[in-house]
Write a structure and sequence with these properties.
Layout (H helix, E strand, L loop, with lengths): L1 H43 L9 E8 L8 E2 L1 H17 L3 E14 L2 E13 L9 E13 L5 E11 L1 H6 L22
Parallel strand pairs: 1-6
Antiparallel strand pairs: 1-2, 3-4, 4-5, 5-6
């Protein structure tokens, strides 16, 4: 009997670290998926794609000084859609990417600190160059009752694009690699 108890304890000790590591990797992947959802929304110019990202009671502090504090998912999505509609009106497209530089977990909440980059692609017939703007972002994500990560606080402000480019990747944290520095457009 003592042998079986000892064997069970040893087996439990060997399985627990493996399970914990797998669970942690799944958590990291789920958190990183939030940034992929942003990319999808920006590419589609559709704020509805951000519905799973924001909690119902989310608070958004946008970078524009003319905007106040935005409360609630519906209001956050409406602000994004207003931005997307302006881009659509110009017949342009957008891309966005992120580089997480710090991730702090506190129970069922995570604070992600990252840089983001947005690329604006004007219609080809205008012959305007692609432009970009970057920023810093702090996002507090919380697991809902279904264990899905949702933003409860989103704070952003502008930053020099070089800060995005210079960000160092961290293991298992989202680190977009789609953007290289823009080169000056070549005129024929």
């Amino acid at each position: 009997m003592k042998f079986l108890l000892t064997a069970f304890i040893l087996l439990s000790l060997m399985i627990t670290p493996s399970w914990a590591k797998t669970h942690q990797e799944q958590d990291q992947a789920a958190l990183n998926a939030v940034y992929l959802q942003y990319a999808k929304a920006f590419a589609a110019l559709d704020a509805n794609e951000l519905t799973p990202v924001y909690a119902e009671n989310a608070t958004y502090l946008p970078e524009q000084p003319s905007n106040g504090i935005i409360k609630g998912r519906a209001e956050v999505l409406a602000l994004y859609q207003k931005f997307f509609d302006r881009v659509k009106k110009r017949r342009a497209t957008l891309e966005v990417d992120f580089r997480v530089v710090d991730r702090q977990r506190h129970g069922n909440e995570v604070i992600d600190i990252c840089y983001y980059m947005v690329r604006f692609h004007p219609p080809k017939d205008t012959e305007e160059p692609i432009s970009e703007f970057a920023g810093k972002l702090v996002m507090v994500l919380k697991q809902d009752e279904k264990a899905q990560w949702q933003a409860v606080l989103d704070v952003s402000n502008r930053a020099e694009p070089q800060l995005y480019y210079d960000a160092t990747p961290k293991p298992n944290w989202y680190y977009g690699e789609q953007f290289l520095p823009l080169k000056a457009p070549i005129n024929p």
